[in-house]
Amino acid sequence: MKVIEFLQNAKVFQIATVDGDQPHTRPIGFVMEYDGGLAFYSDKRKGMYKQMQVNPRIEICALDSKFNTLRIVAKAKFITSEEAQKAAFEAMPALAKMGYAVGDGIFEIYTLEDISFTCKSMLGKDIEGIEL
To answer: In the list 11, 20, 56, 84, which could disulfide-bond 109, CB 3.0-4.6 Å?
Structure first.
């Protein structure tokens, strides 16, 4: 199974960023494959975007229906372009209903670099076969 499939099957997963010395988590539910990697979106007006600008280190945590946990540690890298935004709208048309538009200056796309991940069972045993 691929990491993107795990995240898509989880539907909603948590992302953690840091504001100074205070961690912040929030649920997100969007991920797409883009240019060979995972890609997500953020809103320039939100704290999450601002926090990733100061400190791009993030952690994502997802739980599947069997209570297996996927943790991804990475750096966010913003790659916003019209092409990336259009791909996001194709992956999730509801983004338009949320008020976003290609080239609106607030809808940002980011990918991950320096990625490491682990997948463990509820009992803490490594889950094999998960790949990027």
So the answer is: 84
**What one-character-per-residue DSSP string does 54-70 give?**
H--EEEEEEE-TT--EE
Q: How many CB atoms lie within 10 A of CB 84?
A: 21
Model pLDDT, residue 132: 87
- Residue 1 tokens, joined: 């199974």
Terminal alpha carbon distance of the chain = 9
| Closest by Cα among 79, 97, 73, 68 to 1 | 68
Do the beta carbons of residue 3 and residue 131 sit within 8 Å?
yes
